[in-house]
Amino acid sequence: MLDRFFRLGERGTSLRTEALAGATTFLTMAYIVFVNPGILAAAGVPFAGAATATALGAAVMCITMGLVTNRPLALASGMGLNAVVSFSIIGAQQAHVPWQVGMAAVLLEGLAFIVLVLTGLRESVMNAIPMSLKRAIGGGIGLFITFIGLNQGGVIRPAPVTLVTLGDFSQRYLWVTLIGLGAILAFRCLRVKGDIFWGLLAATLAALLLGVARWPTAVLAPMDFSTFWAPFATVNGTPAIAQMLSPALLTAVFALLLSDFFDTMGTVVAVGEQAGFVDAQGRVPGLKRILLVDASAAAVGGLFGASSITTYVESAAGVAEGGRTGLTVIVTGLLFAVAALFSPIIATVGGGYRLPNAAHYSQFVGSGFRAPPDVLPPAGLGDAFVYPITAGALIFVGFLMMNAIRNIEWDDWEESFPAFLTIVCIPLTYSISNGIGLGFISHTLIKLLRGKARQVHALMVAVSLAFLVGFVLQSR
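Now predict its structure.
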């Protein structure tokens, strides 16, 4: 029955492979259960409630994606999007914007997304993008994932002049990263099925033996539903969602919408090419259903109090393990549901390691930080924490995704320069959507200056202008 419903045989996979792929995807994403509540807590969201919302939100939407689309695309609260919600929508105006209103902004963003999908506009934009840029997005995300892995694993670290430099090889956490990556390569050389999964387990064991990870002191943790339905909570005598009508908040919703829109687009194209469900024209069969689930996930994130839930690029880890159907992410979703109960155990794999004598996280996010002690900060906001157990897997998955750039027409500079700009700017701006925006703008500008306006789809022109406006608004 499972074989027939998920078309396992047709896609060259098996129940065992899908289960292993789902577990691998979950392990590479497990950190979000602990990182996301820490970020949201900085804006006043109850930490325990945000933890439950993060795990259950990911569980519900992963299972929904698997059943509705039969594609191996996992979802969870988006890194970067959560920072926008906490530090731009709520945190920047903390005296005036309660966190419940911030979640109402996320809900409105999701509802706007649903409208864009149902009208066909979102799918039309994706289909209007030139193939060279679609391939560049996949390669850029691959570099981005590798950069995140190198940063999380301590292989690179911030430097005042050169921006980054080589990590400290005297530190145990860096050796956990190298052991994990080395194990993946060893299992790959030996052609052991599930090399990434076994590499993650090897890194976990190394972290425990070296004292980088702590053995869990508890097995179960109670669920907390205090953040659920936050947009409809009464705050200062008025429903939170009714307080969304100010120009500043509506502008923030637009910025969130733009970022979420193109983060998802890039992820679907990149993971789709790796999984083999992108056709020769760069189109994704069943795209509308994928986008509708993703748009609904953003709204669910606001309703649950988990920030915007979006399609995760770490889905590529499961695809690298052979995941080809929705069963992969159903397994991932079920494990997220378990994580809502067994968070102390999951923290061992997904959790971060505080560097010796590291300054408190508040130095990275400002004096408004109100999270409880030992909350893990997001990767990329300084080197107070590292995440070495999953770092090796991210580095290797990034390498696998670079395969996407081999078919870019490098001899045609009009096509290859915007692709190149996309590839380098995604990791260097630490944003998928920023890199895509710069690639779009350069592609449109080059074609117009070369007198080839007919080669540029009208939607590409409109989106490029929207990105330009967005960049200007972000800089103000």
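The two ends are 56 Å apart (CA to CA).
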